Structures are given as C-alpha cells and as structure tokens.
Amino acid sequence: MHRNDKTRQKKRERPGVKSLRRWLTQWLAALAFLGLGVVCSVIYFATTMSFVERQNTTLWQYKKIIQHLIEEVATQGDIETLRHKLDDFFFGRFDLRLELALHGERTTFPKGAITERSEQLRSVDFQVPARWLSDGVMHVTLALDTSADATMLTRLAWTLFASALGGTLLVSYCGARLVRHSLEPVNELAAQAKQLVPERLSERLDGQTQAEEFQPLIMQFNAVLERLERAYVQLEAFNADVAHELRTPLATLIGQTELALTGTRSSEDLLDFLGSNLEELQRLSGLINDMLFLAQVDRGISARAEIVNSIADLASEVLEYHEAALAENGLRGAVLGDASVAADRALLRRALSNLLSNAARYGYAGTCVTVRIGVESGKVLLSVENVGEAIPPEEIDRIFDRFYRHDVSRVHRQENNFGLGLSIVAAIARMHGGSVFAHSDSEITSVGLSLVPARRTCI
Ligand SMILES: Nc1ncnc2c1ncn2[C@@H]1O[C@H](COP(=O)(O)OP(=O)(O)OP(=O)(O)O)[C@@H](O)[C@H]1O
Ligand SMILES: [Mg+2]
Questions:
Q1: Sequence-separated (6 or more) residues with CB below 8 Å from residue 313
Q2: Closest CA to 27 of 176, 153, 140, 154
Q3: In this predicted model, what pLDDT tens digit does every residue of 46-68 receive, in sequence order?
Q4: CA distance 289 to 284
Q5: Which CATH superfamily is domain 306-456 in?
Q6: Which ligand is in closest contact with the Cα of 417?
Q7: Choice from 350, 358, 396, 424 to test ligand 1 binding pocket (greatest atom count within 8 A of CB)
Q8: Residue 229 CA to ligand 2 centre (angstroms)
Q9: 409 in ligand 1 pocket by Cβ < 6 Å?
Q10: 211-242 pLDDT per residue, tens
Q11: Which of 105, 153, 222, 346 could join 204 in a cystine, given CB atoms 3.0 to 4.6 angstroms apart?
Q12: 213-298 is a CATH 1.10.1660 domain
C-alpha cells in the first residue's frame, strides 16, 4: 500500500467507526490462540498420561523382580544373600528406591541414592510372603524417581505455550494481510464511485472484475444510480417545463401591461385589462400551488386519514359540482358501486374532480361519464370512465407524468390546462399508499386510483 493510501486509511479510521479489518484480525488471533491452545493442551496431557503409564509399568516390572528375589530366600540364613542380591540389583539405579522392614529395622536400597530434597516419587507398597520372618510377611516400599519426567514435562509445557503464541502471531499477521487483500475490491469500488459525478450520470459501477460476493451490492448500487438518473432527468425536464409554462403567460402579462401604459386609456379599458391580468395571475397562482403540492408529496407528507363510509356519496357531491361542465359538453354523469375507505376527504375530492374534468373535456357529446367504485383483490378501485377518443397504448403510461399533454388533447387544449391534473391524482394515490391505473380501448377511457380499504389502512 502506498503512503497516501495509508494516510487515507488512518483518516478513515474514525473513533466510533468499526474497522472490519481490525475486527476480523482480532477474531482470527483469538480463534487461532484458542485452537492452538486446545491442541497444545491435548499434546501436554497425552504426554503426561503416557509418562505416568510408563512409570507404572516400570514400577510393576521392578515389583515382580523384587518379589521373586525375596521369595527365593528360604531360611533366616539367606538374608545376607538377599542383601547382596539387592545391592547388586540396585547398583547404579539412582532413580529407584526400595525400603524393606527386616527384623523391625528399615533397610534402604541403594543407600543414599535419592535424597529427600530432590525426590519426586511414584511409589508402590506391597507385601511378600516370608515364612522365616516372625509375622510371615515382608513389608516392601518400591519408589521411582520421576523428577526427570517432571522436568521434561515443564519444558514441554513452555515449548508448547511458546509455539501457540508464535502460531497465533503468525496467523494474526497473515490474517491481517489476507483481510486487507480481500477488502481491496472495496477500495476499488470506492474509487469507481468517486468518479460518478452528475455530469456522467449514465456511468455505472463495473463489477466484472469483482468477486461474486460483491455482485449483489454492485447490482443494488447500480439500481440506485439508475433510479437517481431517472429522477435527475425528470427533475431537469420538470424545471424546463416549469420555465416553459411560466414564460408564455408572463410574456403576455408584460406585453399587456406595456400596451396599457402606452397612450391614454379609458377607465373601462383599464378595468378590462386588470380583470384579464387577474385571471392570468390566478391561473399562474394555481399552477404554483399545484407544483408546491407535488413538491410536498415528493418530500413525503402523508394524508390525514379519516373513514369515508360511502365513496359514492362523496363522488355524487363532486359530480354535482361538475354538472354544469358536463352539461355544457352534452354529457351525463352517473355513480356506480360503493365502498368505504380511510382517506383524506378533501384530497379524494380533488383527485375525483381532476378525473371528472378530464372526462368532461374528452367525452363525446351525448355519452355518459361514469364514476365506478369497486373492490378488487383487497383494494378499493375508484375510476372515472368516459366514451371518447382513445389514448394510444404507447402514451397511456405517460399521462400521469408532470406537464404531459397528449397531441389528441390539442384540439381540446385550453390555456388553463398545464398537464398536472393526473400527476396530482397519482400523488394523492401515493399519499394513501395506493396507485393509479388507466385503460383506453375502443373509445372507452377509464382512469382511476386504487386505495387501501378502511380496515387495513395504515397511513
Ligand atoms: N379521459 C381522457 N381521455 C383522453 N385523454 C385523456 C383523458 N384523461 C387524460 N388524458 C390525457 O392525459 C393528459 C394529461 O392529463 P392531465 O389531467 O394530467 O392534464 P390536463 O388535463 O391536460 O391539464 P390539467 O389537468 O392540469 O388541467 C391530457 O392532456 C390528455 O392528453
Ligand atoms: Mg386534467
């Protein structure tokens, strides 16, 4: 790693921020020490057990020999022979000690071979039949000096401990390097992500050379970028649309005001002029209010939910309000079906009003505009249906876009229409946890929204 990288690494290690590298290395070290500790302990105890076993075997073999030597003694007079034999047997065997009780006197073989200070003894007491003794048995204690084995075990313990420690250090060092190496792709991805600037919105993270485990992360990150790009493009288009929509009425207002200021105007002319300016300004104010509403919904405000027991009643009220507009175009209105829903009444009225004003505009004279209310797959569907020119299938998904107005509407377009009505319907549906839908087929167009039924609504 370069020096710069190290400095960057240090800067990144902020207090309170967990370092994955440190965490993994520490765990590797702990596990290595534990694992090696267990192995070393097993080795130590297995060695101790085999030493003990060997000592017991040795003692057993010597016990048999001593028994044999004592049993060979037939009479009192053979005691001296026994002493000689035992002296010969124990000559130079400083790791062994034998104690016999002969006529109440304890005799040791070999003499002074093992001092009390250095003694680490494993001993065995036994009796040998001896008819020539007054009590008929001889009491014998045979002991084996195990201090050499003990020293060896101590050395083994230290060696194993040092090996475990050394092994742990080695595993920690290699583990740290391995972890650093395996996390390098993250740095590479971070470097790639750093290159992603708004000017290069279409670029994505390149995951081709990355490990399989990073693929879900890269995919999700790229999906987020995709959504961001779409939102960014929409925002840019929205800004351009807003500027475009404001430019024409403002230019009209400025032109009219300049005209009014040139020459002398009668007070009636000025009143007319002010009246038309007020209309234009009210239209602009409506546009700005709609945009503000959409901006608030984008920021995530939710609807104030109350139980609307009968959507049909609410729809009839809104239909009544649009009666004049419908009648003007030779249309009739009707409400079919009913359901209850938890929703904000005012917002629901607004959505329905937008749908009805479209239907009133695009419905053929002499036909009927129907407000349909129904429940399907656990959702309340509220739609407005009219008979009129169909929306082309390739355009149907775009009608909910902000400022979208299809060509077909040009015939009907009035200056008052900005193309925000259905995006407001979509926003209202979103605020209630629902969605919008539109079908247009053989002159029947149905546009509406789905809502969550009253009992399941959690807004
Ligand atoms: N019932 C319908 N029949 C045919 N086309 C429709 C219908 N409803 C909507 N559209 C199309 O969808 C477009 C967008 O509708 P929307 O309500 O968003 O805007 P608008 O009615 O043009 O303007 P605004 O609602 O802001 O006054 C319309 O311009 C029209 O082309
Ligand atoms: Mg509309």
A1: none
A2: 176
A3: 999 999 999 999 999 999 999 99
A4: 9
A5: Histidine kinase-like ATPase, C-terminal domain (3.30.565.10)
A6: 1
A7: 358
A8: 28
A9: yes
A10: 888 899 999 999 999 999 988 888 888 888 88
A11: 222
A12: no
